[in-house]
């Protein structure tokens, strides 16, 4: 797995996942449980990961959409 983005914004995270899903790229959200434990204050960023084989394509999709990658 490779990290392609980090964010504390759940709306942005959802948007990034939708972009990648539309391109046929599966994603995994890391640190989702710690963010639930923090009570939603946004102190801990969630990491968006893709399979190693999909990293290059995922970064290209996110860059094309104007989104910064990690």
TrEMBL record:
Annotated InterPro entries: DUF2007, N-reg_PII-like_a/b
Ranges of residues in domain DUF2007: 1-66
Protein name (database record): DUF2007 domain-containing protein
Naturally occurring in which organism (per UniProt): Roseomonas alba
């Amino acid at each position: 797995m490779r990290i392609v983005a980090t964010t504390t914004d759940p709306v942005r995270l959802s948007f990034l996942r939708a972009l990648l899903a539309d391109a046929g790229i599966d994603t995994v959200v890391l640190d989702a449980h710690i963010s639930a434990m923090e009570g939603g204050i946004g102190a801990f960023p969630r990491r968006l990961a893709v399979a190693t084989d999909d990293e290059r394509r995922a970064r290209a999709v996110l860059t094309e959409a104007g989104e910064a990658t990690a």
